[in-house]
Structures are given as C-alpha cells and as structure tokens.
Amino acid sequence: MATNRKIGNSFETEFCELLFQHGFWCHNMAQNAAGQPADVIAVKGKTAYLIDCKVCSNNRFPLSRVEENQHFAMETWKACGNGEGWFALKVEDEIIMIPHFSMVALSYEKSALNLTDIREYGTPLERWLKKC
After folding, report:
1. What phi, psi does 71 have (nearest 5°)?
2. How many helical (H) and strand (E) elements, i.e. helices and strands, does the chain have?
3. Which of 1, 47, 72, 83 is least buried, going by the fewest C-beta atoms within 10 A?
C-alpha cells in the first residue's frame, strides 16, 4: 500500500504536468524542506498561483488538513499583491480547485467537506484552466 506522502507527491507531479500542458510554468516544491506551506507555484500570463495539492480519501476533505502555516502563507501571498491561494483537491478521478477564502469560510460551519460540498464550492480543473 502506498504511503500518504507517496500518494501526495504523485498527485503534485501529475498536477504540475497537467498545468504545464496548458501553458503554465510550474515549480513543484515537494522536494524542498519539510513543512513548506504550499506544493506548487504556477505562472501563466503574468499571473502567479500558489496551490496546495490534497488527495481526498472516502470522498471527504477534513478541513483540519489545512495547516496554520498554509493559512498564513496564503494570506501573506494575497497581501503581497498576488491573487488568491488555491487548493487542488483530487477526489476519485476529478481535480477540483477551491480558493483559500472558501476554505476559511467553510471552516466556520463545517469540519469536513463531502463530495457534494467540494463540487459546490469548487471549480473543476478544466473550467479553472480556461479562466487562467
């Protein structure tokens, strides 16, 4: 059985390859020092995106998986003049993008997102790519 780290690293690599195929420059920070606050920096059209990749098990995403340093980094990223931080959630064979502010807002009312929530508050990767 694959470890969570191996599953996560595999998704980060897959995600960067998908973005690259859609004209992004990507940097996968997975190999950097432990505890980095996000997994990927992707750039396209003079816009940079800070993205954390999460693989969901059992079609659920416990909001406790968003760590304090990730909240701080994404808030600082935005305060420095960049856009919103993003979470790329892999659920089954889908990748759904959810902005950081939505994760924060949802954490006040829920402890976890189910598949319905993820689809309702997120944007399928294909649609997100068209907006970038």
Report:
1. -60, -50
2. 5, 8
3. 1
pLDDT tens digit sequence for 33-80: 566 789 999 999 999 999 999 999 999 999 999 999 999 999 999 999
- 35 C-beta neighbours (distance < 10 Å), count: 7
Tokens read off for 114: 């189910």
**Long-range CB contacts for residues 79-82, cutoff 8 Å, separation at least 24:** 82/48, 82/50
Distance of CA 4 to the CA centre of its chain: 16
Amino acid at site 126:
E
How confident is the model over 11-41, as pLDDT tens digits? 999 999 999 999 999 999 876 556 678 999 9
Cα–Cα dist 34/92, whole Å: 27
Residue 31 corresponds to which tokens in the numbers above? Answer: 């190999």
Distance CA 5, CA 124 (A): 24
Q: What angle do CA 56, 59, 61 make, to 5 degrees?
A: 50
